[in-house]
Amino acid sequence: MAEPTAGTDRSLTRNQGEVLSALKGADKPLTAYDILGLPKIRKAGLKAPLTIYRALDKLMDQGLVHRIESLNAFVHCDHGPHDHATGFLICSDCGRTLEVHLDDCEDHLAGRAREQGFAVDAVKVEMTGRCPDCAARQAAQAATS
Amino acid sequence: MAEPTAGTDRSLTRNQGEVLSALKGADKPLTAYDILGLPKIRKAGLKAPLTIYRALDKLMDQGLVHRIESLNAFVHCDHGPHDHATGFLICSDCGRTLEVHLDDCEDHLAGRAREQGFAVDAVKVEMTGRCPDCAARQAAQAATS
DNA sequence: GCGGATAATGTTATTATATAACGTTTAAGG
DNA sequence: CCTTAAACGTTATATAATAACATTATCCGC
């Protein structure tokens, strides 16, 4: 029983496929417990937090999923596996995120670290603010008040 | 009773002073529960998690303490209040951190966000790796094995 | 196919991190 | 004083993540 039924990616187990599929279907990051609470996930037989966390760990190993530290949540990576650092724009209003690539800035950041004698393994950037939609809505509300 | 006995900073309440003092005395980030478990803190009468979290919130408002998202831990900011983004180098071996300033890189990062129509409030950068000491120790061990 | 190693899973319990709700006390200013 | 807003105390609870151990599936060489 190695057929992933939920995802299209080969070499994923059923649990991993289900979790990845759940993240793909969401429009914003989900916590492990958000995922656990999804009807589709329950119907698929996943019912323990650990089951979700294990699947997420493997998906992150493969670069298919990223963890948003400041939200304790996880998002599908829609850019395919990549080895350069990623940053996330996190809307504090609607909770959606936008992934940005930091190919050039990564060198700058890591260079700063190396000046201090630090050997960098991973770079994480998270920016909080308002997404275009929410910024526009707030501007409109401010105008009418 | 507004005298901060633990810290030297004015305008801090006693609880805030105790918590800040605890962080100043540590050589690495502490979680709220780490702080709660310190004898000095217990002796000062702080005994509930919420007490610690409330003090931490205020200290962060004032820029005296930073939160390390990927550790769920808090560090004293030894640069004084500053408004430009900070980054942290986090040693995955010894757990110590090093704060770095990102005054120039911040513009680059935030600019990337603005290209997408995103209004940035805060930028957080966390880099994981090995600090100079731990990198040197590992190199020495590799040489003798 | 068989057998053994390795990875993945199931299950239960527990630990770690953070906040809600509510009443009381304290500090600052008129 | 007296009011008001901030800080605090207390208890309970919510949220996030992992430990420990038994079981099952998958891969690979034979």
Structure description:
Two copies of one chain form a homodimer. Chain A has 145 residues and is α+β, with helices and mostly antiparallel strands. The first copy, chain A, has two domains: 63 residues, Orthogonal Bundle (Arc Repressor Mutant, subunit A); 59 residues, Ferric-uptake regulator, C-terminal dimerisarion domain (Dna Ligase, domain 1). Helix content of chain A is 43%, strand content 21%. Chain A has six helices and five strands; from the N terminus they run H-H-H-H-E-E-E-E-H-E-H. Chain A starts with 13 loop residues before the first helix and ends with a helix. At the A-B interface, strand 3, helix 5 and strand 5 of A face strand 3, helix 5 and strand 5 of B. Chain A binds a DNA duplex (30 and 30 nucleotides) through helix 4.
Strand and helix map with partners:
Two copies of one chain form a homodimer.
Chain A: H1 14-25, H2 32-37, H3 39-43, H4 49-61, E1 65-68, E2 73-76, E3 86-91, E4 97-101, H5 103-115, E5 119-130, H6 132-144
Helix pairs in contact in A: 1-4
Chain A binds a DNA duplex (30 and 30 nucleotides) through helix 4.
